[in-house]
Amino acid sequence: MSKILLVEDDALLLEVMRNILEAEGFEIHAASNGKQAFDHFMSETPDLILSDIMMPEMDGYELLEAVRVMPNGVTVPFLFLSARTEKADVSRARLLGADDYLFKPFDAPELINAVRSRLDRRRMVELFDTRTAHLQTVIMLANVIEARDPYTAGHLERVRRLALNLAFALDWKNEDIVILEFGAILHDIGKIIVPSRVLKKTGPLDEDEWKLMRQHPEVGAKMLEGVDHLRTAIPYVLYHHEWWNGTGYPNGMSGEKIPREGRLLAIVDAFDAMTTNRPYHISMMAKEAIEEIRQNRGVYFDPDMVDAFIRSYKS
Length: 315
Ligand SMILES: [Fe+2]
Prior knowledge:
Structural class: alpha/beta
Number of strands: 5
Order of helices and strands: EHEHEHEHEHHHHHHHHHH
Low-confidence stretches: none
CATH topology of the largest domain: Hypothetical protein af1432
Oligomer: single chain
Strand content: 5-15%
Number of domains: 2
Bound molecules: fe (ii) ion
CATH class of the largest domain: Mainly Alpha
CATH architecture of the largest domain: Orthogonal Bundle
Number of helices: 14
CATH superfamily of the largest domain: Hypothetical protein af1432
Mean pLDDT: 90
């Protein structure tokens, strides 16, 4: 539940806003002047601050300035409530780093939309900031695998791009696409247990070698289990060799019982394997590979996803 610090010296307006926002499921903390609000901010960082400008003791500008110099206040969305007659002061608010302002009188939808859009935006920015840092670590890890297997050079990058295109074609949400990127890069991380000579082998693998190879989804999933920000990518790692008809591994799941992460990655992974030189088969042209994927629609691959893949590949 998002916490909102509401700062307003007009008790009646404060109550009206509290009721509107509480009805939307927000947790409201109220203060009647800047000083009180700042004390509150210091004891518990809110997710968003909504503040009047003209108030006794410490006004809205002073509050904004005080909040912005604190490490936990640099990115907190700060919205001003302002009377239309105070318009000139809005530019000052912007200079100080206010995110938005609402003109009094405002109605309930206006208030809710302003609060929601700022909170959503903040969530996205946070998600993408941490994503960049994590992505670099993940790419480094994945490079370790690629370095041992020269035949798959560039495979992870291509799978990542193909997977992103397919997820966009399927209208997946942005939050899910962030996880997909990690999953696509890490899907073969479990191959760390497969000796380099097996990865590089040009002939068919013997039974023991296959046994080892087939363990890579589970080994990879175990590797990610203890890492908070990577745990959500496990379905990509664990299920990318499950086939729609139930003949895949490690669990032999079928149809929609296979998590959609695995179904998506299975298509792009197979496509890239077919179009790239690998030790155990000769690469095909993209056109032939697409045809092969189409023929396995409903056999190895999710039929709807195959349709989307073919559309996304053409466009
Ligand atoms: Fe794999």
